[in-house]
Amino acid sequence: MITVIRRATMGDYLAFFREVIPGWVIYHGGERVGMAGITYNKLNDRWWAYLNINGDLDRAGGLRLVREMRAGLSNLAEDVYVLCDEGNHPSAPRLLSALGFEPTDEVEDNWPVWKKAATTEGD
Question: What digits encode the pLDDT tens for the residues 17-36?
Fold first, then answer.
């Protein structure tokens, strides 16, 4: 039997993990500029947020992004964590603060860990 290793596609994730990694795509000026979402990590029993933006949003686009994300994070049954990549994104701490995340004393993969506390009681 031959072993093949290649970059994973969304179809590979679905076939292997049997679940969709929830996320939203961000368009600006008709171009796909980012992805955001929350996913559960079984290894550390935590929910992790991610936000990757490639390109620049104007002020109106940035404000809309913050409003939409704040609404999406308004009813959390669990704490949510995120890594703050300030080195590559100098405005990351300001954005995370605007979204309600707070810095922790933790560091993972040389990046500071931020946390947004649950806002509702879990089931």
Answer: 666 666 788 888 888 888 88
Phi, psi angle pair for 2, to nearest 5°: -95, 135
Enter the pTM of the model.
0.77
Is 80 a domain residue? yes
Span between the terminal Cα atoms of the chain, in Å: 46
CATH of the domain at 56: 3.40.630.30
Q: Where are the beta strands (DSSP E) in 1-123?
A: 24-28, 31-41, 46-53, 80-83, 102-108, 111-116
Residue 55 gets the label, from left (phi > 0), alpha (psi -120 to 50) or beta, of left
